[in-house]
Amino acid sequence: LACNELFGAGEGGLIQPPNPSRRFRLSRAHLAINNVTARELWRDFEIIRGMVDDLPVNSQRGAQALTVANQICNTFDRDDVKSLDACRALSKAFLNQGSASTSHVITAVGNCHIDTAWLWPFDETKRKVARSWSTQVRLLEQYPEFTFAASQAQQFKWLKELYPEVFQQVQAKAQEGRFIPIGGTWVEMDCNMPSGEALVRQFMFGQRFFEKHFGKRCKVFWLPDTFGYSAQLPQIVRQADMRYFFTQKLSWNNINKFPNTTFYWEGLDGSRVLTHMAPSETYAAQGNVSEVIKSVENHKDLPYTNESMLLYGNGDGGGGPLPAMVDRLLRLQNIDGLPRVKFGDPNEFYERVEANSPDLVTWKG
């Protein structure tokens, strides 16, 4: 049984080298049959409660959400299963009130960031890839709206060699445009210490792999969890046949806050790439109301674009989106008082921003 804690299998601190002798014991497992109506009501209530908690105290929709939440609580009778239907009628009537056409639009992209080398052995990384991506293939079968993006050619190569049936399923979903190979590099690499030649090879071997096995090169350079960014990168990205860049960790700086969310990054030679950092400030969102509200309130370039991305799904050690996350985002697609959410492809997000936002600022160097 492969098992890790959230930050690996080390001992003696939060981040420690893996202990190969450490053992975990599975002592109990539960089987359950879902009451579908109860589950759907709970998902509705999560959204309504989130609106109560996270909308401004004096907002009309926040007040309405509190009223509906109280009505649901007063209607529910744990001894009467029929009360679930009455409660759902209340929640659906509230959640079905649509948002304005001018509302901020969030493109929700499922992902499961997997550190290729961190707090576990390489063999565990290989298993994480197989477990995580096979789970996402099942979700793609279950939810027709759902999309999932994955980077790092090395991880695709491991999947192809060790789990060829899963790799074929991934290829099939990629043909549908819903399992989205992204990034264009061999791994999500450090960009401070490597030489220019080393960086070029990341793109060269990565793009070759994606073109060979998925029929096209990546357009988005995907680096959510790297600590630094060489000023060479825009030039290399453009010469690797890519136009766009996504990153996240830069937004976590608590000393020098970066002033932009969506902008052009210009390199030393004048090459530019359209860059976005999710204003939710995470690549492991859970699909909550607070995250979609933050996607607007923390967006630093709203005068120039009315769109953002939300990357959701458990990450670092893989896992990815859970059904509950997708269920919440399905409800958040069109609710009065909140931004609109759509499941989508990062490539299409960047293409829309590029076409519709001519006045974005440029960061040089």
Features:
12% strand; Glyco_hydro/deAcase_b/a-brl; glycosidase; 3-stranded parallel β-sheet; 7-stranded beta/alpha barrel; globular; 5-stranded mixed β-sheet; alpha/beta; single chain; 365 residues; 11 helices; Glyco_hydro_38_N; 2 domains
Helix-strand layout with pairing:
Blueprint: H1 36-54, H2 60-75, H3 83-95, E1 105-110, H4 122-142, E2 148-150, H5 153-162, H6 164-175, E3 179-181, H7 196-214, E4 220-223, H8 233-239, E5 244-247, E6 262-266, E7 272-276, H9 289-297, E8 307-312, H10 323-331, E9 340-343, H11 346-356, E10 362-364
Parallel strand pairs: 1-8, 1-9, 2-3, 4-5, 5-7, 6-10
Antiparallel strand pairs: 6-7
Helix pairs in contact: 1-2, 1-3, 1-10, 2-3, 4-5, 4-6, 5-6
GO molecular function: alpha-mannosidase activity
Organism: Dimargaris verticillata
Protein name: Glycoside hydrolase, 38 vacuolar alpha mannosidase
Description of the molecule:
- It contains eleven helices and ten strands.
- The protein is of the alpha/beta class.
- α8 links the parallel β4 (220-223) and β5.
- It folds into two domains: 36-95, no CATH class; 105-364, 7-stranded beta/alpha barrel.
- Pfam families: Glyco_hydro_38N.
- It comes from Dimargaris verticillata.
- Keywords: Glycosidase, Hydrolase.
Radius of gyration, in Å, reads 22 Å
Task: Count every helix, treating DSSP H or I runs of 4 or more residues as helices.
Answer: 11
Number of strands: 10
Ends: how far apart? 47 Å
Q: CATH homologous superfamily of the largest domain, by name?
A: Glycoside hydrolase 38, N terminal domain
What is the level-2 CATH architecture name of the largest domain? Alpha-Beta Barrel
Mean pLDDT over all positions: 95
What is the number of independent domains? 2
